[in-house]
Amino acid sequence: MIKVAYHPIYAHPLPEGHRFPMLKYELIPGQLLHEGTIEPKNLFSPEPVTEDIILVTHVEAYWLQLRDLTLPVKEQRRIGFPLSQQLIERELRITQGTIDAALFALNDGIAFNIAGGTHHSGSNWGEGFCLLNDQAITANYLLNRKIVTRILIIDLDVHQGNGTAEIFKNEPNVFTFSMHGDKNFPFRKEKSDLDIPLNDGVADNEYLSLLAENLSFAFEKAKPDFVFYLSGVDVLATDKLGKLSLSKSACRERDLMVLKKCKDLNIPVQVSMGGGYSADIKDIVDAHCNTYRVAFDLFT
Predict the structure, then answer these.
(1) 259 contacts 269 by C-beta, under 8 angstroms
(2) Which of 10, 44, 134, 170 is deepest in the core (most CB within 10 A)?
(3) At what angle do helices 281-299 and 20-35 cross, to 10 degrees?
(4) Under CATH, which architecture does the 3-299 domain have?
């Protein structure tokens, strides 16, 4: 059975001006349940991750400032959210949700976290709505426990996975692949193992062609026994921040390409949702739900 991490705190309210980005985390499971893609038994509620697991990936001084709500105001502005105890708990549950999902994926082939994909968080910083790097923490969790030996992180959010690249810059057992807008945030990029920078306005055919070529290369180089997939839908033409021109159908084809590759090679994959900032929330939710629809068609 495909398992999906979700907790009501994922959609917890923020001060005025910050609520819209959180709304999708409530609407995605609601839509998937309504249409019958998932059932209540597919959902699980994660506990908060423990501090010892965080500290394998993040610098202690940074984590303590988050935990104790003492992060300087300038650093909070870099994150984009004002810190609160509820926001920290949210991040802890998201991270444990990705760990749990990865462990489920080892048995079921694939598992999801309805939130996550916090790829802008580096070893000692947060930015771009990211406090702790859920997939990086989970990758280290799997490696340190010798559950897996080689990991490929496929980051197809429109923004470069700079935090993930920084965390694993000296880790030969994790291959980071980021395909992203060249002139988009973050404006100071880190070096992934494979970066594919895209010009503004790239549309369906060019995007899918580039992905097909570089996805095969990434698998050949990484030789993974586990994959993390960050499936941001801010690649859509409707996205307010994305600057690309993908249709919803091409976004779905992108997901199919990645997930079918994992299925055909019998490599388990954990999926976190990443960004999506279209003006109409229906576009965001439908594009994210397509990722689940593709997965349930492939894996069940």
Answers:
(1) yes
(2) 134
(3) 40
(4) 3-Layer(aba) Sandwich (3.40)
